[in-house]
Amino acid sequence: MTTSTRSTLAAEATTTHRPGVPWATVVPVAVVIAYADGFWVTSMRGAVGAVGRGQGPFTTWWHQSTVLVPLYVCAVIGALALALRWSRRGGGARAGLLATGGLVVLAATLVAVVVMAAGAAYDYHVQSGELQMMATMRGDCRVDCLERLRQDTMWLQVRATGLGAGLLLLTNLGVVAWFAMLCGGRLDAARRGRPRARVHGAAVRRAPYAVSPLRRLRTTPVAAGAEVRLLLAATLVGGALIHVAVVPEHLDEWPAAGAFFIVLTALQAGAAAVLLRGPRRGVLLLVLAVSAGPVAVWVWSRVWGLPLGPEPGVPEPVGLPDCAAGVLELAAVVLAVVLLRRGAELARRPRLSDHVGRLVVTAVLAVTVIGLAATQEGWFDLVQASDAAGSTMTSR
């Protein structure tokens, strides 16, 4: 190739930048906000929550804050993705900073308020049971008295949640403003990726030694189908991890249930490993079976109760680990159906944007971490409160 030809091609080439996730912004902001919001969530629970859930506030604070960090990472990435889209419409640097910071504050506050509201709802459930138990023990509080106490308890939780939402909003405003000041008055919504040269009308042939194998691998375009397949494998691995964590307790309750979860874990992990080699139809059908089947069994056991086992026909209680595993399995069903029906089309489409891809992967990670943490006693006081309530009802 002559020098003039190279110059012409270089003039026709356009350099594009692919916006990526600014992890230097996402991770520190998410971690600080998670622990700051966790302080108020734990404080409100200790002030107006059920007695059994207020024990060990410091341990509860750092346990739950650590578990919820991936959820806050999702919130920050989503806020930055919206800020990046809006910034393309124009606006000055100050407007971009306010928009980015405001979206991060709103997204993080929404996550914290949902967590606080869920805790308040469970607190009200536990406190209603305690009021019922106290009424039966004393006998001087009749139906109208019991109903009034329940209404007062409910409004106490509602007011506490409203007050907590205001405190969370102010705290997140302070954290984001503090971080922006540390960054010199900036809050980047995206980092600039490596430049990619596009040549119109001709292709530049480079010598094999011009690009290293590692760099060639990193610059190889990834189709959307490959990303969906990787996401499907991640959901299968997440469900398998949650299932293997609950094997010991199921072996103690009913050995057949423990064996079922062992086989299910092996099938999900094996399907994820084989799926990484290619989206074969047989593998996708196996994914549908090992994902939809456990969801159907779970719904039957929670609504009507299994016909076999230690307590046949008795519905089992709904727990946080099985809900997390169910969410991952439902996501696996949807992704497997998408690959079965539109796999060839997705193989020709370009990859998703960096924000969307990281957001979805982090969401899968967040559900997996929350489900795993709920299987370990002491990481979520919700489990301890449920056990305490169950033991109280059993003693009665």
From TrEMBL:
UniProt entry keywords in alphabetical sequence: Membrane, Transmembrane, Transmembrane helix
Keyword Iron-sulfur: no
Chain ranges passing through the membrane: 21-41, 61-84, 96-122, 163-184, 228-248, 254-276, 283-304, 324-344, 356-374
Domain of life: Bacteria
Transmembrane found in the keyword field: yes
Protein's recorded name: Uncharacterized protein
UniProt organism field: Terrabacter aerolatus
Higher taxonomy: Bacteria, Bacillati, Actinomycetota, Actinomycetes, Micrococcales
